[in-house]
Amino acid sequence: MAYSNKVLDHYNNPRNVGSMDKSDPNVGTGMVGAPECGDVMKLQVKVNPETGVIEDAKFKTFGCGSAIASSSLATEWLRGKTVDEALEIKNTDIVNELSLPPVKIHCSVLAEDAIKAAINDYKTKSATKVEALASK
Amino acid sequence: MKLPIYMDYHATTPTDPRVFEAMKPYFMEIFGNSASRNHSFGWQAEEAVEKARKQIADLIGASPKEIVFTSGATESNNLALKGVAEMYAEKGNHIITAATEHKAVLDTCKRLEKHGIRVTYLPVQTNGLVDLEMLKDAITDKTILISIMYANNEIGVIQNMAEIGKIAKAKGVLVHSDATQAVGKVPVNVIKDNIDLMSLSGHKLYGPKGVGALYVRRKSPRVQITAQMDGGGHERGMRSGTLNVPGIVGLGEACAICQAEMAEESKRMAYLRDKLRNKLEAELDEVYINGTMDSRLPNNLNISFSYVEGESLLMGINDVAVSSGSACTSATLEPSYVLKALGAGDDQAHSSIRFGLGRFNTEEQVDYVAAKVIDVVKKLRELSPLYEMAKEGIDLTKVQWTAH
Fold first, then answer.
1. What residue ranges in A11-101 does DSSP mark as E strands?
2. Is there a contact between B145 and B109 (Cβ–Cβ < 8 Å)?
């Protein structure tokens, strides 16, 4: 299979690889996929609680080159967006940007799922934080 | 060193230059139809075909009259299974094979099942070998054929054909073996190995593509098969169609070269393979060999690099031609059924790479490939959430994954 130049670029120079402290209340973590399916993505966002803007995003991915590229691209797009803007990222945007062939569309779906999972994790965490403060 | 490096010799091999030289005259000069009985063009072609028949027979311990030329091992497997099922229909309707067979055997069995044949697909042990006790237990009075491959195309494990043949003989059951990967690489002898029908292919042993053979035993017992193609009754009625004379000459020459050089070549293959393995194991943790090393083709290494997905690894070593059992590299988007049959788990299959060494690989190439693989695996593990979790001591089998 021939890979697009953008997929190759992300594969060769993955952006924002790494991990952030999961227990940080401002960090949302999304982990999607399964080893037996051949891809697992971990995506993390660090949100400024005052502004709701994603200040940092990190990923680690076990998967094919397109899965790595999809999650690498997602972290690039997430930085600087508000959490609500982040939820608007669609898998088709990733497909178009990376010129993914049909057999690799599931990689983009996984990346969208990872974004949603990370944001939801952050939202759940901040909601509990508010509740905890309110009950004090 | 010239790039890319070819290390996928189980998929196909280049034609040996000596084979190509031997074939050349049979396209334009000696172009006759070997079935033409009344002129020299035909006689010359026939002579070449009979020479090749003997070269092939000599390599596998058969007699030339037991060699039936086909278009390749897929056709040989089809002809053996369907031909026996049809010919021995009155005797029984049960075939035994193994889960790790090539698709040319498995899918032929699937088709036969639609025509009233009962097929037992034996599981294999974690080492890739058929459990002989299980094989014995599977035989019934309706069993007509046991079809077990000689050496596996993915993991290279060599089945104990001699014992399988002994078990079959005791029960009066025929044995077919798909020996595509074994012939020319390891000593194969249809007498010692108790094989009644055997498939082989030209392009896996440095011969041309599009030509193969089926060995059909002529005595003790005399095996008969029903032809699966109608026509001129070539190959003693077992396979009609004008013979592919240049291809057959090439197959014969390839077999003769293998016979002359196998002992030396297999030593060199094992040396290179072991060097590759040792380098990978010295530099990387959590690498697992798939299938036993105790009974294996000298040129095969099938290895899983845990926490790294096979296709991403292939992408990183893109100047090296190898294969992966990962779903992402297969047309069906399913991970290797051979590795799954070993019970290794899908994740091991997704992380597997098959190295198939061959005649034209050099030690310098092996060193290059080892260094490259080590480098890319390390890089991808830095990227792998699974590797990170494993290093944190998390048991990945206990994690609730969101399967998709």
1. 27-34, 39-47, 54-62
2. no
- The residues in A 93-112 lying below 8 A from B, measured between CB atoms, are 103, 106, 109-110
Min Cα separation A62/chain B (Å): 5
Q: Which chain A residue's Cα is nearest to B383?
A: A60
Tokens of B163: 């014992």
Catalytic residue among A34, A37, A127, A132: A37
For chain B of 404 residues, list the mean pLDDT of each consecutive stretch of 10: 97 98 98 96 98 98 98 98 98 98 97 98 98 98 98 98 98 98 98 98 98 97 97 95 98 98 98 98 97 98 96 95 83 84 88 97 98 98 95 89 72
Q: Which residues of B touch A113 (CB under 8 A)?
A: 402, 404
Helix (H), strand (E) counts: chain A: 5, 3
Q: Let me know if A64 is a catalytic residue.
A: no
> Is A35 in Cβ contact with B396 (below 8 Å)?
yes
With CA atoms as reference, report the closest residue to B297 among B276, B270, B277, B318: B270
Contact list in B for residue A110 (CB cut-off 8 A) is 404
Q: Does pTM top 0.80 for this prediction?
A: yes
Tell me whether residues B309 and A38 touch, CB distance under 8 A. yes
pLDDT single digits (tens) B116-175: 999 999 999 999 999 999 999 999 999 999 999 999 999 999 999 999 999 999 999 999
Output the DSSP codes for B310-350: HHHHHHHTTTEE-EE--GGGSTTS---HHHHHTT--HHHHH
Contact (Cβ atoms closer than 8 angstroms) between residue B269 and residue B276: no
Q: List pLDDT tens digits, range B154-167.
A: 999 999 999 999 99
Q: Which tens digits make up the pLDDT trace of B265-304?
A: 999 999 999 999 999 999 999 999 999 999 999 999 999 9
DSSP state of A104: G
Which sign, positive or negative, has the C-alpha torsion B146, B150, B154, B156? positive
Residue A37 among the catalytic residues:
yes
Residue B318 tokens read as 């893109």
* Cβ A116 vs Cβ A88: under 8 Å: no
Domain definitions of chain A by residue range: 5-125
Check CB contact of A37 with chain B, cutoff 8 Å: yes
- CATH architecture assignment, domain A5-125: Alpha-Beta Complex (3.90)
Please check whether residue B335 is in contact with residue B346, taking contact to mean a CB–CB distance below 8 angstroms: yes
- What is the residue type of B29? E
Minimum Cα–Cα distance from B312: chain A residue: A64
Q: Do B346 and A37 touch (CB under 8 A)?
A: yes
> Both tokens of residue A63?
């998967």
